[in-house]
């Protein structure tokens, strides 16, 4: 049976490559973007645009969708970055969740960024995670006024990473693996015109995100990762932030995220002690 996928940000770059790859694999792809030629045109920076996208996808795929790749995003030092990258992404993700329920093997993935390895604006991140768009945009304006607009992009990606980690267990209980893919600096038209616009900018980014496997990296590697997370083959991975970054995460953080084991709370410890005792009693019980 042909799978149906929705890809936002399918106009250019990673979104376009992902949509093309999924179509080449035989899927039906509903391409969402802002340019002419998209199956669904909508501005995710506005409530009306988000509602319009959800409504149009519902019209185009009333039987449901099998996968959702949320790639749309902007990196400008403006409030729109917060509106589109975080609130637009989650509005579409949550709005299309009912359509995912209609699939026998639903999957969802959001695009983060290896820039999330650096610190962001804590106030913007906190407001995003409170689902307070007005406060988040107000904090964004404050950051811009202080000359820190460049931090907004990674702040939205930090917030998305944290949201995915928090939400994934609930989505998993509903049968939907939910993950994020965090690309490093890859060779797209957008990157060439911004982060790689001059030799000095390229040197700066190479220092900020060292990529032992190459700089810039191949954009199709990110598309392949996104496609796999959406595929029926992904039956047991959820809540993960996959750094497709040429080694930047490993270079910058080493083993730090894994240095300490999990610390369980009192309730979890009590339950584990109880079930450990039950398991021992059951092991002693003669069988046959």
TrEMBL record:
Q: Which InterPro entries match?
A: NAD(P)-bd_dom_sf (IPR036291), SDR_fam (IPR002347)
One Pfam family for this entry, by name? Answer: adh_short_C2
User: What domain of life does the native source organism fall in?
Assistant: Bacteria
Q: Which family does it belong to?
A: Belongs to the short-chain dehydrogenases/reductases (SDR) family.
Protein's UniProt name: NAD(P)-dependent dehydrogenase (Short-subunit alcohol dehydrogenase family)
A GO molecular function annotation here is: oxidoreductase activity
State the species of origin: Nonomuraea endophytica
Keyword annotations for this protein?
Oxidoreductase
